[in-house]
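Write out the 3D structure for:
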Amino acid sequence: MKEIIAVIRTDATEATKAALESIGVKGITFSSVIGRGRQRGTIRTPDPEGTLRRDIGVSIMKQRNILPDTDDPRYNVPVQKEIELGFLPKKMLTIVADDQDIPGIVETLIRVNRSGQKGDGKIFICPLTESVRIRTGERGSRALS
């Protein structure tokens, strides 16, 4: 038996849950957490000073053949801005499964959660020595089914 602990983006929770259910995973625990890794709590967000609105205005002016002065520094500000928040909200899920099920679960987690961007998450696989179903006293794999 092994325990899988995965930290994923919050917006991937439903897709992750559905994908795991589709491969037969029955027991999943989700928790809301905050944290940071290599991403360092930094997100890219639209520029709050209105750059996006200005760029849309420029686009409309170009469509109407009213071209702005593109040398004007107001039109050369990037649309995206990085903001450091410190810690970001994430979802942490825990799954306990038999050893032979681990590769399929891990591959599913990677497939559903990989966007190629910083902050996609991490998966930890830990050995587990015992599990016990409280209601019946069943142990090991029998406690998981």
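The beta strands are 2-9, 29-35, 42-46, 80-84, 88-97, 121-127.
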